[in-house]
Amino acid sequence: MDPATLLADVQLALSLGKMAFDLGQEAGPYLVNAYQIAFGNKVLTAAERTAMQTQETQWRADIDAQIAADDASTPPTP
Amino acid sequence: MKRILLVISFAFSLGGCATVQAINGFSVTQGQLDAAESVYDGTVLAPLHKYAALKACTAGQTFTPANPCHDKVLLKRLRAGDKVAVKAMSDTQAAITSGDNTGAVAAYNTMKTAIDAAQSLITISGASTL
After folding, report:
1. How many folded domains does chain A comprise?
2. What value of ipTM does the predicted structure carry?
3. C-alpha radius of gyration, chain B, whole number
4. For the whole prediction, is pTM greater than 0.95?
5. How many domains does chain B have?
6. pLDDT in tens, B34-57
7. Which residues of B touch A (CB under 8 A)?
8. Of B18, B10, B125, which Cα lies nearest the Cα of B77?
């Protein structure tokens, strides 16, 4: 394997690792929460539930904004 | 007469389902809903949010690890699936709050189906590998 290919593979692995890390940062707390509720008898407080719903609303607003941007950039079909 | 008896027995059997569920203690708790919603946020909504933030795929391009991008049509389908799941979660919450156990069980089952469908779509999109 030549050094250029090796370097490209390493860069790809690093970028994938970064994406996985970023996703883990966002998704991790929710999965930990779910585990603790299911197996650790954790009960969400009203504040925690509100925080979760606020985050959900924010994410959905971002997704809807992206869909609107996609629609705006797509040329109308003749 | 036979027909009337059949209808009555059918109605009783339907009512019996709810009664049996109540007797067996089969109910949906706030904790179950919170756990399901947390799992949904972690496995569907967070990846979906990341997926939407990727640049849009050009014509003929598909998602690959080397060139991550979001498919505009698939993103809309994912969001539509998300809306179904949100509605089912909201219905489940309303039934739990009002003490309607039968309604909560039905809404919870609908919600589980919606979550499964959304998770399948997320897997197809490749967003879960982000």
Report:
1. 2
2. 0.82
3. 20
4. no
5. 1
6. 999 999 999 999 999 999 999 999
7. 30-31, 34-39, 41-43, 45-50, 52-53, 56, 65-66, 68, 70, 72, 75-76, 79, 82, 86, 130
8. B125
